[in-house]
TrEMBL record:
CC terms in the record's Gene Ontology section: plasma membrane
Keywords from the UniProt entry: Cytochrome c-type biogenesis, Membrane, Signal, Transmembrane, Transmembrane helix
TM spans (from-to): 441-459, 471-496, 508-527, 534-553, 578-600, 612-636, 648-670, 739-762, 777-794, 801-821, 841-859
InterPro entries cross-referenced by the UniProt entry: Cyt_c_assembly, Cyt_c_biogenesis_CcsA/CcmC
Protein name according to UniProt: Cytochrome c biogenesis protein CcsA
Topology class, membrane: Multi-pass membrane protein
Domain Cytochrome c assembly protein span(s) in chain numbering: 503-825
Principal localisation: membrane
Pfam families to which the protein is assigned, alphabetical: Cytochrom_C_asm
Organism: Paludisphaera borealis
Location of this chain's protein in the cell: Membrane
GO molecular function terms attached to this record: heme binding
Record's signal peptide: 1-22
The UniProt record lists the keyword Membrane: yes
C-alpha cells in the first residue's frame, strides 16, 4: 500500500499542525485592556479553605470550579460589554466569592448560559417588544419608522436579521439606533449569556397569557418528573422546554449562593459540628423552645439560624435511630456517646450563612471555642470588606488569615478528623494541573506523528528511513507522554477520593483511554508495525476528548454509594471489566483502520458511481421520513403533529437506518474517488513476475514444509498492476487482522474474568451469584458476541474482512453494556454511580455513523467482485 504513503503523510502532517497550534496558542486571546481578576496567591489561598459540598469535604477551589462551570459553561468567567467585547475575566474562586459578597453587581452581568437560540428569543421577546415600544412612542420617531416598529412588535418572533433590516431602512436617532444594535447583538447566536435580572424579569408566552420565566420552568420540571414516572400521564417535553429547565437550574444555582435564602443546594458548609458536652447541652436547651412552637412552619422564624440548624441535625439523627433508642441529649449517657460520635464523623457541616447570621455569644453557647470562632468571623468580615473595596484583587494576607482562622476553628471543633492542609493542597493542585485535560494534546500529537510515519513504507519500521523513524519515535514519545499524564492524574484522583478510579462514567471513560494506550504501546513494542500505536492513540484521544467536553460526563469526585465502598472489589472486578472495554476499543480502532484500507482498496473490477449510489434510493426517503417524524414528535411542526412513544421510536429507527445507509453510500463513493486518484494509470502498467506463495486448490490446509516445497516448485506468477495492488492491500491488512484477533482475545479474557468476579461480589453483597440483572446480562452478551468471530476465525469460517467487520460491529455490544444499561435502560442494581438521560438521540447518531463505515467498505468490496447488472 505504498500508494497511500502521500495521502497518509499529508493527513498526518495536517493533524500534527492543528494539534501543535492548539497546544501552543491559548484558547481565546484576550483583547488589550481586559482586566484579569481573581488571579494570584490570595485566591489560591482561599481555594484551600475546606468546605463540605454534596456530601464530601473538598477545597473551596473545587466547589468554585464546579459551580462556575455549571452556570457559565467554563471555569473562567468572561464578562462582555454591550458590543460583545470581553472587558473582564474572573477566576473561578474570585467569581464564586464575589457572587456571595456582591450579588447586586452580578445580577446585572451576562453570565448565565443560554446557548439555545430559540429559547433565548422567547426569553428576550417581551423585553425587546417593550424597548421597541419605547422607541416607537418617542416624538422624534418618524411615522414611517413607527409603522415599521409597530409591525415588528406585533410579529410572533423577532430575530437579529429583522432588527438589522430595520436599522438599515429606518432613520432613527443615534441613541435609538444604539438601542436596536444592542438588542440585535443580544439575539445573535454568538451572545450565549444573559443576566440574572433578565431571566427573573422575563415573561414567556404560555397559552393565552404571559408567565414569569421561573414559574414556567417550575411547571416544566413538574411535567418532566411526571413524564419520567409514567410517560402516559404527561406530554413529552420539547427541546426548548428541556433547555429551559437547564437554564432555570443555572439561575437557581447562582441565586442559592448569592441570596440570603437557606437553600440546601447553595449552602457552603464550612465548619464541622461541635460534639462537646457544651454542644449536647445546647441541643437539650433548643428542644423545649422548638416544642413550644405550635405551627412547625413557624420554627425557622422563632428559632435563630444556629438553633434551627442544630434542630435539623438532631432530627436527621433521630430519623436514622430506632424509636426506642431516641432520647433527648443529656438524658442518656449511651445516647449521648453515640450522638457525639455521629456529630463528629457523619453529620453534615454547618453552613457559612448560619455562622454569619449568628452572634458570637450564640456560637460559643452552641459549643464553638470562643477565641477561635471570633477570630474566624473577624477574618471573614475583613475578607468581605477587602473584596467589596477591591473586587477580584484581595490582598494575600486577608486570604491567608481566613485560611488560618478557619483551620484553627475546624481543628479545635473536630480534632484529628478535620482535613489536613496537604489534602486540600493536593486537590487544588489536581484542579490546576488537570492532567486529564492535558492528555488529549499528547495523544493528538502521537496520532498525527504516527500517521505521518505510517506514510513511510507502510509502517514497517525497518524500511522507514531516518525521517520516518524520527516521526515514529516522536509519536511513541507522545503516546508515552499521554500515558504518563493519565497515570499521574489517576494517582492524584485516587489519593483524593481514596477509591479505585472507576466509580462513575467519567472515570471509566478516561480509564479505558489509559488502558487502550498502554495495550497499544505494549503491542507496538512487541510487533513494531505502527498500526497498534496509531489505533491506541486514536482511541485514547477520543476517550480523553469525550471526557473533557461532554457535559454528561461529570468529572466531580463525589461520595460513593454504600454498595460500592469496597476497594478490593472495585479493583478486581470493575477495573477488570472496564479494562476489557479498552481491549475491545483497541480492536475497534484497528478495525476502523483496516476498514479504511478496504474502503479505498483496488478490486477485480472498478464499480461505477451509479452502482455505488444505488442504496441512496431507499436511504434518503427513510432519512427524510424518520427525521421529519422525530422533529414532529418534539413539537417542531406544532402540537397537532406530535406523536406518542411508539411512533417516535419507529421514526427514530427509520431515521437511523436511513442515515446509516445514506452516509455509508457517500463514504463508498468517497472511497472510490480516493482509489481512482491514487491508482491513476494502474491498468497501463506492465505485468511483472512474482513468486507464488501457496498452491491453489480447496484441499486441506498444507503444512509449513509442504507450502515451502510447493512455492519452490511452482513457476512465478504473472501479475498485472491491479493484481499487485490487491496483493499489497492484503499484505497491509494481514497484520492488522492479526492485531485485531489478539486484542479481541485479551478483551474476552478480561471480560470473562470480570464477569465471574462480579458474580462473586454479587454473592458477597446481595446473596446471589447471578440474578439476570441488565448489567450482568449485557456483560454475558458481550462475551458471547466476541466469542463468535474469534471461534469462527480459528475454525476458518470467518475470513479477514469478516473479522475486520466484526471488530467494529461487535463493539456495539460494548456500547450497550457500558453506556446503554446506565443511560438508556437506567434500571437494575448496577445503575448506581451514573446519571439519567444520556443524550440517546445524539449517541444513536454516532453509532449509526460508526456503522456506516464498515457497511460502505462492504458495499464497495462486494461491487468490486460483482456487478449489479449481472
Amino acid at each position: 500500500m505504498r500508494r497511500y504513503g502521500r495521502l497518509l503523510f499529508g493527513l498526518g502532517l495536517c493533524a500534527l499542525l492543528i494539534t501543535t497550534v492548539a497546544a501552543v496558542s491559548p484558547g481565546q486571546r484576550d483583547d488589550q485592556g481586559v482586566r484579569k481578576l481573581g488571579v494570584g496567591p490570595a485566591y489560591e489561598q482561599l481555594g484551600k479553605v475546606a468546605v463540605m459540598h454534596q456530601g464530601r469535604v473538598k477545597p473551596l477551589d473545587t466547589v468554585a470550579r464546579e459551580e462556575v462551570k455549571h452556570v457559565f459553561s467554563r471555569e473562567t468567567i468572561k464578562l462582555l460589554d454591550d458590543e460583545n467585547r470581553v472587558v473582564e475575566t474572573w477566576g473561578p474562586v474570585a467569581a464564586f466569592v464575589d457572587w456571595i459578597v456582591r450579588p447586586e453587581f452580578w445580577d446585572s452581568q451576562p453570565f448565565i448560559l443560554v446557548d439555545y437560540l430559540p429559547l433565548k428569543r422567547q426569553i428576550l421577546l417581551s423585553s425587546i417588544r417593550e424597548q421597541l415600544g419605547v422607541v416607537a412612542a418617542k416624538s422624534t420617531t418618524s411615522a414611517d419608522d413607527k409603522g415599521r416598529l409597530t409591525r415588528l412588535i406585533e410579529d410572533s418572533e423577532i430575530t437579529t436579521g429583522m432588527l438589522a433590516e430595520l436599522l438599515k431602512s429606518s432613520k432613527l436617532a443615534a441613541d435609538d439606533q444604539k438601542t436596536l444594535t444592542v438588542l440585535a447583538d443580544k439575539l445573535h447566536e454568538e451572545h450565549k449569556w444573559l443576566t440574572p435580572d433578565e431571566l427573573e424579569n422575563a415573561k414567556i408566552k404560555h397559552g393565552d397569557h404571559d408567565e414569569p420565566f421561573m414559574e414556567w420552568v417550575s411547571q416544566l420540571d413538574a411535567q418532566k418528573r411526571k413524564f419520567d414516572a409514567d410517560p402516559k400521564s404527561a406530554q413529552r417535553l420539547t427541546e426548548i422546554e428541556k433547555r429551559a429547565i437547564d437554564v432555570g437550574q443555572r439561575l437557581v444555582t447562582y441565586k442559592s449562593y448569592s441570596g440570603d435564602e437557606m437553600r440546601s443546594a447553595g449552602l457552603i458548609r464550612i465548619m464541622p459540628r461541635p460534639s462537646s458536652r457544651a454542644a449536647l447541652d445546647y441541643y437539650k436547651e433548643v428542644i423545649p423552645k422548638a416544642r413550644s412552637v405550635q405551627d412547625p412552619r413557624e420554627l425557622s422564624r422563632v428559632l435563630t439560624p444556629i438553633e434551627f440548624d442544630a434542630l435539623k441535625a438532631l432530627d436527621t439523627y433521630w430519623n436514622d435511630t430506632p424509636l426506642d433508642d431516641r432520647h433527648t441529649p443529656g438524658e442518656d449517657a449511651k445516647f449521648d456517646e453515640k450522638f457525639s460520635v455521629w456529630l463528629s464523623e457523619s453529620s453534615v457541616w454547618v453552613p457559612l450563612k448560619v455562622l454569619l447570621k449568628a452572634e458570637p455569644e450564640g456560637l460559643v453557647k452552641a459549643g464553638y471555642p470562643d477565641a477561635d470562632v471570633r477570630a474566624f468571623l473577624t477574618a471573614y468580615r475583613q475578607l468581605e470588606n477587602a473584596e467589596t473595596s477591591a473586587p477580584g484583587q484581595v490582598a494575600a494576607d486577608a486570604a491567608a488569615n481566613l485560611l488560618k482562622t478557619s483551620r484553627a476553628l475546624g481543628e479545635a471543633v473536630n480534632p484529628g478528623k478535620y482535613p489536613t492542609l496537604a489534602s486540600m493542597d493536593r486537590e487544588s493542585h489536581f484542579n490546576a494541573v488537570n492532567p486529564f485535560w492535558q492528555a488529549p494534546f499528547a495523544y493528538g500529537a502521537a496520532l498525527a506523528l504516527l500517521a505521518v510515519s505510517l506514510g513511510f513504507a507502510g509502517g514497517r519500521r525497518s524500511e522507514m528511513g531516518i525521517a520516518g523513524k524520527s516521526f515514529y519515535t516522536l509519536g511513541m514519545l507522545g503516546l508515552a507522554a499521554g500515558i504518563g499524564l493519565e497515570v499521574y492524574g489517576f494517582y492524584l484522583r485516587i489519593a483524593i477520593s481514596g477509591w479505585a478510579p472507576v466509580t462513575n462514567m467519567y472515570e471509566t471513560v478516561i480509564w479505558v483511554a489509559l488502558v487502550t494506550a498502554v495495550l497499544s504501546f505494549t503491542f507496538e513494542l512487541v510487533y513494531r508495525r505502527t498500526f497498534t500505536a496509531l489505533a491506541g492513540a486514536g482511541v485514547a484521544l477520543l476517550g480523553t476528548i469525550t471526557a473533557a467536553n461532554v457535559p454528561l460526563l461529570d468529572p466531580s469526585i463525589k461520595s460513593l454509594q454504600p454498595v460500592l465502598r469496597s476497594n478490593l472489589w472495585l479493583t478486581i472486578h470493575v477495573l477488570t471489566e472496564v479494562s476489557s472495554y479498552a481491549a475491545f476499543g483497541l480492536a475497534w480502532g484497528l478495525g476502523l483502520i483496516a476498514t479504511f484500507y478496504y474502503l479505498t482498496a483496488t478490486y477485480r473490477r472498478t464499480p461505477t458511481f451509479k452502482e455505488l449510489a444505488a442504496p441512496l434510493l431507499p436511504g434518503l426517503p427513510l432519512l427524510a421520513t424518520g427525521g421529519a417524524g422525530v422533529a414532529a414528535s418534539y413539537g417542531l411542526f406544532g402540537e397537532s403533529w406530535t406523536t406518542g412513544d411508539p411512533l417516535f421510536y419507529v421514526f427514530a429507527i427509520m431515521g437511523g437506518i436511513g442515515w446509516m445507509v445514506s452516509l455509508g453510500t457517500v463514504l463508498a463513493c468517497a472511497g472510490e474517488v480516493v482509489n481512482r486518484l491514487t491508482t491513476r494509470g494502474l491498468d497501463d502498467q506492465p505485468a511483472v513476475e512474482v513468486e507464488r506463495h501457496a498452491a491453489a486448490g480447496s484441499r486441506p490446509r498444507p503444512s509449513v514444509e509442504e507450502i515451502k516445497a510447493m512455492a519452490e516448485a511452482a513457476p512465478p506468477l504473472q501479475l498485472d498492476a491491479r493484481s499487485r495492488s490487491m496483493q499489497q492491500t492484503a499484505a497491509m491488512i494481514k497484520p492488522l487482522s492479526n492485531f485485531i484477533y489478539r486484542a479481541m482475545q485479551v478483551g474476552v479474557l478480561l471480560i470473562a474474568a470480570g464477569t465471574i468476579l462480579g458474580g462473586v461480589w454479587a454473592d458477597y453483597s446481595w446473596g446471589r451469584f447471578w440474578g439476570w440483572d441488565p448489567k450482568e446480562v449485557w456483560a454475558l452478551i458481550t462475551l458471547l458476541v466476541y466469542l463468535v468471530p474469534l471461534h469462527g476465525r480459528f475454525a476458518g469460517w470467518v475470513n479477514t474482512f469478516g473479522l475486520v467487520f466484526a471488530s467494529v460491529a461487535c463493539f456495539l455490544s460494548v456500547v450497550m453494556a457500558w453506556y446503554g444499561v446506565n443511560f438508556i435502560l437506567g434500571v437494575g442494581l448496577h445503575s448506581y454511580g451514573f446519571v439519567e438521560g444520556g443524550s440517546q438521540g445524539f449517541m444513536s447518531l454516532i453509532i449509526a455513523s460508526m456503522m456506516s463505515l464498515p457497511l460502505a467498505a462492504y458495499w464497495r468490496r462486494w461491487l468490486g467482485y460483482n456487478s449489479l447488472a449481472a
